[in-house]
């Protein structure tokens, strides 16, 4: 089986938000922040992912894999020196407000926690990695992970991410990530988050 082709994405956030909304809608963190009712949560997740995509398009790196000409997998990442500032933050602010006041408060609490524990040393940050649910299991996410790892290895800096899913944690561990923190967030009903880091490959 040939390696999926990873390409830089320079289109619009609207092309990515539906896929990412579907990919993340049922994650424990999404349920805890955006609500139990799935149709409402899916709409909120889609808008939120649109905001994250817009922010990454303005200030980070967006890579995709296409299947049949359509985007099937997406990664949003930030390298050393890539940090959302100024107008790059606007898509995320608008998306957060669109989720409603209660969800927004929960999102802000989660964001505060994640920012507090974010590493300060230079690194690549994998903010989002999502695959169209119907196409999961085809190693698309793995190809995106390898592409990020190659960039980090070339720069000789680690990669960092957070996940709220045990299967995702196991996937990341297969690609060299180590758990550097495990947290049960009481203000989100005890949802567990793992913070993970991958050291650069030795030369």
UniProtKB/TrEMBL annotation:
Gene Ontology MF annotations: acyltransferase activity, transferring groups other than amino-acyl groups
Alphabetized SUPFAM superfamilies for the sequence: Acyl-CoA N-acyltransferases (Nat) (SSF55729)
InterPro entries named in the record: Acyl_CoA_acyltransferase, GNAT_dom, Trichothecene_AcTrans
Pfam families xrefs: Acetyltransf_7
Annotated PROSITE patterns: GNAT
Domain N-acetyltransferase: 118-201
Alphabetical UniProt keywords: Transferase
Name used for this protein in its record: Acetyltransferase (GNAT) domain-containing protein
